[in-house]
Amino acid sequence: GFFVNLDATALLLFIVVFILTADYIKNRRLTGFPPGPPALPIVGNIFTLDHKRTHESMTEVQYGDVYSMRMGQRWVVVLNGFEAVTQALVTQGDSFSDRPSIPLYDDIFHGLGVILSNGHMWKQQRRFALSTLKYFGFGKKSLEPMILEEFTYVAKEISKPFNPHLIVNNTVANIICLLVFGHRFEYGDEQFKKMMKLFEQSIQIQLYNAFPQLMRCLPGPHQKFKRINEELKDFVRTEVKDHKQKWDPSDLRDFIDYYLNEIQMVTEKSFKGQDDSTFDEECLIMSVLDLFGAGSETTSTTLRWAFLFMVKYPEIQERVQAEIDSVIGQSRPPSVDDRADLPYTDAVIHEIQRMGNIVPLNLPHVTNRDVHLRGYTIPKGVTIIPNLTSVLFDKREWKTPFTFNPGHFLNEEGKFVKPAAFIPFSAGKRLCLGENLARMELFLFFTSFMQHFTFSMPPGVKPVLDYRFGITLSPVHYEICAKPRHE
Ligand code: HEM
């Protein structure tokens, strides 16, 4: 019995030593690779990070502007500060513009659409989305009047005190609905309410990404998440079907109509054997979900930060209102053309975006070749986190990085200036595709709210600038009062 036990123990010991050695050899930092914290075998640095404030723990490191961590079996390089981030994304943009594979999302989106695609697919879909957005957002068919009209609906909904979360989400989602579906929804519409609820679902993806083969077979929240996304696809599919029935090439009403037109042209081209197109209905559905996923919660979260900052700094709110009163008055709605005459308001919106820091760790990138960056060698296939928190709060770039200070965006004469380190939309080839739309929405919604309402906390409540960390950084739910400025 003793010998059998010894053999079993020895075998176990041998296996453990073998696994640890293999893990060490496979995963050690090669010469020239960026430094970083020591990693545990197998799991790496997964437990080194504070999951409630990952963006802050990634920013407060002592390894310099380029450092590495191992998340399970995957190496991740974090870029910190304006210089390192823009050197990678802009100066060396060709090497850093791809997305890594994210198993859970790959299983749902299959690499289609804009946000998660690469190569030819990404180029075609991004170019198409950009030009369509330009046409419907700012061209002959501008979204400006629709945004102003949407404000009149949300203004009617406000009773005090209220939780702005749902209301503002609906408002902003409707702008994307107008863009892609060509119509808005009543806030009480059952279908709309259901869609908005589905979009609210989020999930921890670390475990699934670390062990995709295993997780695919196991039950758990990821299976529910997949089902929810299938429901969202069905929702869009119904809209597409509807658009196909009413489709008229001489009157393209919205994003879906334009896309159907593109598919039509592809069919004609492929007869001539020139088919390198990525346009089809599945891809259309993913692109539409991309626009919702990237374009709705982001803008809505920024507005919810805006209300909180105005309540926290009532003297800033008053100054914004005074500027709006003197330039626009009360008898007409704001227009994007007013921006140049509202430097203080513009500065406040930018400072809200800087301090709000709503995409704290950016979206992940990946090296698509071996690269040299700031003295380090990073092989192809390493996940890159161009940490936006570290840029928007970079001590070398901002006078008072941790204080709300519209002065960051004003020169001595009170004119608006934009420091280069203001990159909440990221930079380079993957730069947010909706930046112009988001900026127009933020400006029109924010000035409209300030023109018509004064925000304050309910009696006896202090504003809390606490957040929930996820892909976006959103304020914890709060209630707020909005007092009409003019009855
Ligand atoms: C990507 C920020 C609004 C569509 C991104 C990225 C950031 C960002 C940081 C990642 C860029 C990178 O990987 O380097 C924001 C912020 C917004 C906003 C702060 C609002 C305040 C919007 C809107 C839309 C949109 C309104 C669409 C209508 C997209 C898309 C991508 C993207 C499609 C993926 C681009 C690509 O992979 O090529 N955004 N965004 N975003 N955004 Fe936005």
TrEMBL record:
InterPro entries found in the cross-reference section: Cyt_P450, Cyt_P450_CS, Cyt_P450_E_grp-I, Cyt_P450_E_grp-I_CYP2D-like, Cyt_P450_sf, Cytochrome_P450_fam2
UniProt name for this protein: Cytochrome P450, family 2, subfamily AE, polypeptide 1
Taxonomic source organism: Sphaeramia orbicularis
GO CC annotations, alphabetized: cytoplasm; membrane
A matching Pfam family: p450
Chain segments annotated as transmembrane: 1-20
Assigned protein family: Belongs to the cytochrome P450 family.
Keyword Heme among record annotations: yes
Cofactor dependency: heme
Listed GO MF terms: heme binding; iron ion binding; oxidoreductase activity, acting on paired donors, with incorporation or reduction of molecular oxygen, reduced flavin or flavoprotein as one donor, and incorporation of one atom of oxygen
Superkingdom of source: Eukaryota
Keyword Protease: no
UniProt keyword list: Heme, Iron, Membrane, Metal-binding, Monooxygenase, Oxidoreductase, Transmembrane, Transmembrane helix
